Amino acid sequence: MVDARKNLLKEDERSLVIINTSFLQIRKAFNFCMVLSVIAFVVINLFAFKFNISYNGEDFKESGSLINSKMPTIVSNRWIVLTTVNQPTKDVKYLATLSKWNVVVVADLKTPKNWTLDRVHFLSVETQKSMSETLNLVRKLPYKSYTRKMIGYLYAIAHGAEWIYDTDDDNRPIFGGLDTFDFADELSGVRFERNHSDPIINRLFNPYLFYGRPDMWPRGFPLEYFSQHNHTDANFRLCEVQKRAAVQQGLVDMDPDVDAIFRLLHANPTKVSSEHFNRHAPSIILGQKMYSPWNSQNTLFHRNAFFTMFLPTTVSFRTTDIWRSYFSQKLLHLIDEYVAFYPVNAVQIRNAHNYLKDFEDEQEVYLKSGELLKFLDEWKCSQNSTANCAIELAEQFG
Ligand SMILES: *[C@@H]1O[C@H](CO)[C@@H](O)[C@H](O)[C@H]1NC(C)=O
Ligand SMILES: *[C@@H]1O[C@H](CO)[C@@H](O)[C@H](O)[C@H]1NC(C)=O
Ligand SMILES: *[C@@H]1O[C@H](CO)[C@@H](O)[C@H](O)[C@H]1NC(C)=O
Ligand SMILES: *[C@@H]1O[C@H](CO)[C@@H](O)[C@H](O)[C@H]1NC(C)=O
To answer: Helices 35-50 and 386-396: crossing angle, nearest 10°?
Structure first.
């Protein structure tokens, strides 16, 4: 296993060299410098698959640098990942009580130095620096960036994660919480699917409309389609058996993820929002060539989707997870994996934001989502392996 790790590192180095040469070109149009993260993710995922790493993590003890002996015992192959700059919030404390889940918290420069919480794998900036000796990605990630969360994904993957739950320090599971996601391989349920050659507007899914709020749209929904968009009966299928979705996004009550345009029009900036959704509509899987944006606040990933989890580092905090969601859907479709939405199973009480500042951070989302979606919808992979497809796609954003 130690040898395997050395090979992995060599691979990582080699990829970086290749990448660095084409780097400048790639940064142009969408200004994505995601290739780096793509490579790191792909390499680490392949590694995890190849050696079928088990969750007890014994094999990793030898290598030292990823494991800190003071870390808590690993309780399962399910991992919660978040990044924070605050002392443990009530929501993080709650997550740490979930006995079936491991929690990994990624620090950033502003995170209090004395941060500590029982049962939590806390990756301090120092720990991250020692991880960067073996993981190039860690060294390349900017500080004061939400994308450092990726270090938490890598940590979980390296410790044999089968499931990763992506969340934030101000979200909390409710109404059955994480148990309402589907962990079994198959389920009976609803599918959103239409003729693949229909116009994109008909293949777009608006989860808020589906769960009873036609007046709302999720951050990242291409706004040029909103006024004419609806779901018709033709979009829904009942399936007796279908594969569980590799990405499962739960809706969030109170302050769900909407863009600054929605908030500027409808929210009272001095009050806590209290939006609600229908809790009885079923979960729904979006089929091949069906799309919706989704975020990093209440989202479960199966390991088959881990290679699509990279967060682009050169776009704003309010853009990065949206770009990932589109990119990820395309890659998942290539391997016959899908994205699903679940009725509310978390709540967010968001602290005060300046909506105009959010608006500014979301400009790329407003201006480029539609264009990005069109590009992805038409994109075809010319490679013969999924890993190479991920890299090719990242390169072609340039
Ligand atoms: C960490 O430090 C802050 C202030 O410096 C203090 O309020 C807090 O109680 C400390 N936390 C722990 C766990 O010691
Ligand atoms: C999908 O639409 C195309 C073009 O409108 C049509 O030719 C094709 O027959 C349709 N496929 C199905 C399965 O309905
Ligand atoms: C739904 O959208 C279709 C096509 O975009 C349109 O023809 C239809 O009138 C719309 N229905 C409603 C109720 O808005
Ligand atoms: C994939 O394609 C490359 C050349 O593009 C080839 O060398 C390799 O053998 C192919 N691998 C498989 C599994 O087909």
So the answer is: 170
Q: What letter represents residue 167's amino acid?
A: T
Q: Which domain holds residue 276?
A: 171-397
Q: Is residue 205 classed exposed, middle or buried when 0-12, 13-18 and 19+ CB atoms within 10 A define those classes?
A: buried
Domain count of the fold of the chain: 1
Ligand 2 center to 6 CA (angstroms): 51
What digits encode the pLDDT tens for the residues 83-104? 999 999 999 999 999 999 999 9
**CA nearest ligand 2 atom 13, residue:** 195
Residue 28 domain flag: no
Residue 19 falls within a domain, yes or no? no
- If you take atom 14 of ligand 2, which residue's CA is the nearest one? 195
What span, in angstroms and rounded, lies between the C-alpha atoms of 39 and 376? 19
Q: Which atom of ligand 3 is nearest to the CA of 228?
A: 5
Residue 235 lies in a domain: yes
pTM of the model: 0.85
Is there a domain that residue 369 lies in?
yes
Report residue 41's pLDDT band, with 50, 70 and 90 as the boundaries. low
Q: Which atom of ligand 3 is nearest to the CA of 230?
A: 1
- Ligand 2 pocket test, candidate residues 193, 194, 197, 288, most atoms within 8 A of CB: 197
Mean pLDDT value across the chain: 85
CA of 210 to the centre of ligand 3 (A): 15
